[in-house]
Amino acid sequence: MAQQKKRRKKKISRQALILRWIMIIILVLLVWFAVKKIASAFKKVDDSAAVTSSSSESTSQTSGADDIITDSIADDSDGIVIGAGDDMTETTAEKENIDNAWAMFLVNNQNPLPDDYDKRITVKKVYSNGDRDFEFDERAADYLINMFAAAKKDGINLTVNSSYRTIEYQQFNFDRSVQQRINNGMSYDEAVLDTEKEVAYPGKSEHNAGLSADIFSDEYVSFDDDGFKNTKAYAWLMENAADYGFILRYPEGKEAETGIIYEPWHYRFVGVYYAHKVQESGLCLEEYFKANGWLDENGTATQMTVE
């Protein structure tokens, strides 16, 4: 009987010891979790303070015309810090919403494409008029196809009159435009300068990047004037293009900034996130890059460049 009691006591003692260790482990885990939570909270406060400091410094350093550009989008509540240059950051939530960041880069006289860019990309057919097929960078092609399908559901029949162009075709296009001007009485130099307002030099054209399309509709097709802006198709594009990642690349009144005449038909893919950002800002792409501190003093992009 005495031996049975001893065994029972040992058994109870062993169970108590195991239970005690389990309680200690649970307590240690709870303390570790609490410490981690507190450390995370302090880090968020520090990060927030750093972003606020960066924003206030950049604001104090801008003046004159730059103040006007900054004010137009500085109140944006989505997290972009305007004019902060290398310190410009998006919040974690914003980064999760940014699609196709690879497509957000400048192509113009100051920012030509890399020499081998047309060999880096793969293109896909996006439209055919029966006589000719039109292609687009395959990474963005479905966005254009879906936009055309959505427009058709709304009774708008969009057409493509130009999209991806090889460097060779761009050179042919440029030379032809120069010759037409010479035939009309311009000198060669005058013809080149005038052509550059409408046809980008090879390697400096968004069409060479496979991310731009000249879009018209069955209502109106003409490169000779800006009459397309008076169509239902243009109104539809102004309302809906950003939802598919496209911006009007050469807006009216922005000729000095873009170096290109107003082209109500020329749309550029930058991704849905940045398309909305640019459209909401009221800026052309060059101004948007400048406002975000992504350009140097020569207009060359230092951030958001070609991958």
CATH architecture of the largest domain: 2-Layer Sandwich
Q: Outline the biggest β-sheet.
A: 4 strands, antiparallel
Helix content: 40-55%
Biggest sheet strand line-up: 3-4-6-5
Count of folded domains: 2
The backbone outline, from C-alpha atoms, is: elongated
| pLDDT < 50 runs, ≥5 residues | 43-89
Distance between the amino and carboxyl termini: 84 Å
**Content of β-strand:** 5-15%
Tell me the number of helical segments per DSSP (H or I, 4 or more residues long): 12
Using only CA atoms, what is the Rg? 29 Å
Q: Could you say which structural class the secondary elements and strand pairing correspond to?
A: alpha+beta
Summary keywords:
four-stranded antiparallel β-sheet; alpha+beta; two-stranded antiparallel sheet; 307 residues; single chain
Structure explained in plain terms:
By secondary structure, this protein is of the alpha+beta class. The protein folds into 2 domains: 2-61; 85-165 and 205-291, 2-Layer Sandwich (Muramoyl-pentapeptide Carboxypeptidase, domain 2), CATH 3.30.1380.10. Helix content is 50%, strand content 11%. It has 12 helices and 6 strands. The chain has helices spanning 2-60, 65-73, 92-97, 117-120, 138-153, 167-183, 188-195, 206-209, 232-240, 255-258, 272-281, 285-291; strands at 123-128, 133-137, 158-162, 212-217, 246-250, 263-269. It has a 4-stranded antiparallel sheet. It has a two-stranded antiparallel ribbon with strand order 1-2. Helix 6 (167-183) packs across helix 7 (188-195). The longest helix is centred in the first third of the chain and has 59 residues, at 2-60. The chain is elongated, with a radius of gyration of 29 Å. It starts with a helix and ends in a 16-residue tail after the last helix. Mean pLDDT is 80; it is low at 43-89.
